Amino acid sequence: MSLLGNIIWLIFGGFLAGLGYILGGILICLTIIGIPFGQQAIKLGIATMTPFGREIVVTESAGTVLNTIFNIIWVIVVGWSIALAHLMGGLTLAITIIGIPFALQHFKLIPLALFPFGRELR
User: Fold this and answer.
1) What is the pLDDT of residue 61?
2) How far apart are CA 117 and CA 112, in angstroms?
3) Which of 97, 13, 11, 105 lies closest to 56, judged by CA?
4) Where are the transmembrane segments (predicted)?
């Protein structure tokens, strides 16, 4: 089921969304200051490309001071808009029965979009 779900997800927009996150992350990495944020954008892009069969796991370093500061900066600058886009996409897909599994994947990506530092998708 997860393979089929990921293939359908990629065909209907997941590939372009993930590619956008990855390209944006690469551009952010061009600045030295933006490297940690670019890495998180790339991680979010990979997670967006294949969300079925994976889960968000909080790492041991999630509560460190540096990760907390980076998460606060991330939420203020871009995290809220990415999370809002996933929320709106999920609500739109949840209207139909066929779209519910895809809506759940959007909802699963919201915490990763809000606070990517100290979380990973396994």
Assistant:
1) 83
2) 8
3) 105
4) 6-35, 56-77, 83-104
Three-class SS state of 30: coil
Type and span of the H or E element at 17: helix 15-28
Q: Supply the pLDDT for residue 5.
A: 92
Q: Is 86 exposed, middle or buried (0-12, 13-18, 19+ CB in 10 A)?
A: buried
Beta bridge partners of 119: 58
Q: Phi and psi dihedrals of 54, rounded to 5? A: -125, 160
Domain that holds residue 20: 2-121
Q: For the chain, which ranges sit under pLDDT 50?
A: none
pLDDT for position 31:
92
Structural domain total, the chain: 1
Integer CA distances (angstroms), 8 to 4, 76, 101, in order: 6, 32, 11
For tokens 């979009």, the residue is 113
Provide the mean pLDDT of the chain.
Answer: 93
What pLDDT score was predicted for residue 63?
84
